């Protein structure tokens, strides 16, 4: 039992840590100490997170400490203000928005205004608890990021990667250590929901390819190119001809090309959800979605997609999605796009070959689920393009996302239990930490197993 | 008509066809019933009317999503 009185702004409330499984007796002791009306659990400022074994009690620590005799209580702390990072950045972001012109020409990507019947994302206790802990994580990571950034040695190591020779493999496959990995993605199904696929692309001859179009009146054949580029990164072949570099991650993975965006590059939630359904029904371990609609600061995430992502994880399917390209750094950062802003969809930021944040990559601005979860190569990315062009270099969080999807397939191959939430943990746990704030890169640079 | 996505509540996932039928009674023009995700898609004049249907957890207007045109270097 300890009582820590740390410096910094506090809320006047107390944070109580219980022994595992002892939240109920612990809260009983707290109620005895501060009175049932304050610590009732449904009082405005009091919340009990039984699974976490933590309670936020609307009474000062001095008062809550009177419950210290209880064996169920490990620690009592003053509740600190945990959103310091976001709060500190809010004025900067607001200025950026005010100065933001029309934004880059992104085509038909404007979100339909949220109609009044759409319920706001429920401020459920579970959501608040996760948010609360994320706030702590961000604050801690920000501190460590700052310290790491000061270390010149680290910067030197990372900068060395900039001088990458791409004759054997793309810089992205090198930075993510895919080239050092013996895994191939064999027998792992990866769904890429995009503009379709060039089914005649010679680099994919002999591969297992399943496809379906969810765009009325359009065949799977990719009349845009975006889908073919993304599938190339996630699943392209190991040895392309004529001295081209290796560009594909899971080169023996099974391709599930779901066309949810038209040849003009546009689509709708209804088609995307049908594509996710198809991927789950076909037991795809990974769904890669390099698509999205911009969001505004303060905009809640979609309850439909969030629940769908949780159901997908429970059935063994992890969904990763592009964080979006609406920022114009260093001046302007924009929040993570829909649907990557859902807590259970892995939001992917883009890095350049110096391992800096790409200028266009969105940021974790909206607190409830709108964070960046992981980062991947997304600038100067060489991959397949519909014939006769065959190859092209592109940049975008769209290019970063299939790096994560392909690497997820490698983890899934390596461990048959790495599915759904466990696969998420493997990706985040294996990521290379970076001297960059978590709001921009999440857990860091994705790494092959 | 507004394109909508309807999230079916966990405790009605075994009865999605019944929920879909009730949604049609309430004005939904049914597009798809998606059992693995527990989502029903379609269009409605008055999406708010769908929220009262038993087994409906959420109703959202379908958003447009997309990627830039092929000639854009930023994707």
Task: Please tell me about this protein's structure.
The complex is a heterodimer of chains A (449) and B (75). Chain A is of the alpha/beta class and 449 residues long. Chain A has 12 helices and 15 strands. The N terminus of chain A is likely disordered. In chain A, strand 10, helix 9 and strand 11 form a beta-alpha-beta unit. The model of chain B has no long low-confidence stretch (mean pLDDT 96). In chain B, strands 2-3-1-4 form a 4-stranded antiparallel β-sheet, with helices on one face. Chain B contains 1 helix and 5 strands, in the order βαββββ. Chain B starts with a strand and ends in a 9-residue tail after the last strand. Chain B has a single domain, classed as 2-Layer Sandwich (Alpha-Beta Plaits), CATH 3.30.70. In chain B, 13% of the residues lie in helices and 37% in strands. By secondary structure, chain B is mostly beta strands. At the A-B interface, strand 9, helix 8 and helix 9 of A face strand 1, strand 2, strand 3, strand 4 and strand 5 of B. Strand 9 of chain A pairs antiparallel with strand 5 of chain B.
List keywords for this structure.
heterodimer; A: 449 residues; alpha/beta; Alpha-Beta Plaits; Rossmann fold; 2 domains; seven-stranded parallel sheet; five-stranded mixed sheet; 12 helices; 31% helix; 16% strand; elongated; B: 75 residues; mainly beta; four-stranded antiparallel sheet; 5 strands
Short description:
The complex is a heterodimer of chains A (449) and B (75). With 449 residues, chain A is an alpha/beta fold.
Q: Helix proportion of residues of chain B, in percent?
A: 10-25%
Helix content of chain A: 25-40%
Q: Would you give the CATH topology of chain B?
A: Alpha-Beta Plaits
Strand content of chain A: 15-25%
Structural class of the helix and strand makeup of chain B? mainly beta
Number of strands of chain B: 5
End-to-end distance of chain A: 40 Å
Largest sheet of chain A, described in full?
7 strands, parallel
Our measurement of the CA-to-CA distance between the termini of chain B, rounded to an integer number of angstroms, reads 31 Å
Low-confidence stretches of chain A: 1-7, 81-128, 142-162
Number of helices of chain A: 12
Oligomer: heterodimer
Q: Unreliable segments of chain B (pLDDT under 50, ≥5 consecutive)?
A: none
* Secondary structural class of chain A: alpha/beta
Characterize the overall form of chain A. elongated
The CATH architecture term of the largest domain in chain A is: 3-Layer(aba) Sandwich
What CATH architecture of chain B do you see? Answer: 2-Layer Sandwich
Order of secondary-structure elements of chain A: EEHEEHEHHHHEEHEEHEHEEEEEHHH
């Amino acid at each position: 039992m300890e009582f820590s009185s740390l410096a910094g702004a506090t809320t006047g409330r107390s944070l109580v840590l219980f022994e595992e499984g002892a939240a109920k007796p612990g809260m009983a002791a707290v109620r005895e100490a501060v009175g049932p009306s304050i610590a009732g659990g449904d009082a405005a400022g009091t919340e009990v997170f039984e699974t976490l074994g933590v309670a936020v009690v609307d009474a000062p620590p001095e008062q809550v400490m009177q419950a210290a005799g209880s064996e169920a209580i490990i620690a009592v702390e003053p509740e600190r203000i945990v959103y310091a990072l976001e709060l500190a950045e809010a004025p900067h972001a607001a200025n950026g928005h005010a100065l933001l012109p029309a934004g880059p020409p992104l085509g038909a990507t404007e979100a339909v205004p949220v109609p009044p019947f759409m319920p706001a994302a429920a401020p459920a206790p579970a959501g608040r608890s996760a948010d609360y802990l994320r706030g702590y994580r961000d604050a801690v990571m920000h501190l460590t990021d700052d310290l790491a950034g000061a270390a010149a040695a680290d910067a030197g190591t990372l900068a060395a990667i900039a001088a990458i020779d791409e004759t054997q493999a793309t810089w992205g496959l090198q930075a993510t250590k895919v080239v050092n990995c013996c895994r191939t993605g064999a027998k792992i199904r990866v769904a890429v929901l995009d503009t379709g696929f060039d089914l005649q692309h010679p680099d994919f001859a002999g591969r297992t390819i399943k496809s379906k179009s969810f765009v009325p009146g359009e065949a799977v054949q990719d009349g845009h190119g975006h889908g073919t580029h993304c599938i190339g990164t996630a699943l392209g072949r190991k040895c392309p001809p004529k001295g081209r570099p290796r560009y594909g991650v899971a080169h023996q993975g099974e391709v599930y090309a779901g066309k949810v965006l038209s040849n003009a590059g546009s689509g709708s939630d209804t088609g995307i959800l049908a594509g996710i359904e198809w991927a789950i029904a076909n037991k795809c371990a990974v769904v890669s979605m390099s698509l999205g609609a911009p969001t505004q600061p303060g905009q809640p995430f979609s309850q439909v997609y969030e629940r769908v992502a949780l159901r997908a994880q429970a059935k063994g399917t992890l969904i990763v999605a592009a964080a979006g390209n609406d920022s114009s750094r260093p001046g302007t950062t924009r929040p993570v796009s829909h649907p990557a802003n859902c807590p259970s969809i892995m939001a992917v930021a883009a890095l350049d070959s110096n391992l800096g944040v790409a200028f266009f990559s969105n940021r974790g601005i909206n607190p409830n689920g709108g964070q960046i979860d992981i980062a991947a190569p997304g600038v100067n990315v060489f991959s397949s393009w519909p014939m006769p062009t065959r190859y092209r270099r592109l940049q975008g969080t769209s290019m970063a996302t299939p790096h994560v999807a392909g690497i997820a397939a490698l983890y899934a191959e390596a461990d048959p239990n790495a599915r759904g939430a466990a696969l998420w943990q493997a990706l985040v746990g294996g990521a290379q930490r970076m001297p960059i704030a978590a709001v921009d890169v999440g857990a860091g640079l994705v790494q092959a197993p | 008509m507004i394109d909508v996505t309807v999230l079916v509540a966990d405790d009605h996932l075994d009865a999605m066809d019944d929920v879909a039928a009730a949604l049609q009674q309430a004005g939904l023009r049914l597009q798809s019933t998606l059992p693995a995700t527990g989502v029903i898609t379609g269009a409605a004049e008055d999406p708010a009317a769908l929220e009262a249907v038993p087994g409906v957890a959420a109703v959202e207007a379908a958003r447009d999503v997309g990627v830039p045109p092929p000639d854009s270097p930023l994707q």
